[in-house]
Amino acid sequence: MKTIKILKLLLNFYLSILLTTFTLFIIGLIAYQFMGVEFLPAIIWFKVITLGVIGYYISSYKKKQFYYYQNLPKTFLWACTFSFDLSLFIALLIMMKN
User: What keywords are assigned to this protein (predicted)?
Assistant: First the structure.
């Protein structure tokens, strides 16, 4: 598959869970504001664990809709989506600190 097509499919997949990840980001942001830098590892682990739970739920709930992503492996979809989301989360927290 072409790279542009794969990126479009990944973006479409990420947009389907954007509301959930944005809600988690807001919760992490509020926790960071109240607890400070000392609790940053706990906040990041909270984000990772909740993304895993949400990933499991969406994977079982939308099992038949994965055919839309044109045989991209589920692990590839989830790995790209979660790594992008976690990187964005950490980058925004670092920018907030400064």
Answer: Membrane, Transmembrane, Transmembrane helix
Task: Find the helix or strand (DSSP H, E) in which 86 lies.
Answer: helix 74-97
Q: What is the pTM of this model?
A: 0.76
Residues 6 or more apart whose CB falls under 8 angstroms from that of 54 comprise 17, 20, 24
Residues 60/65/68/70 CA torsion (nearest 10 deg): 30
Closest CA to 75 of 55, 54, 46: 55
Q: How confident is the model at residue 38 (pLDDT cuts 50, 70, 90)?
A: confident
User: In one letter, which amino acid is 12?
Assistant: N
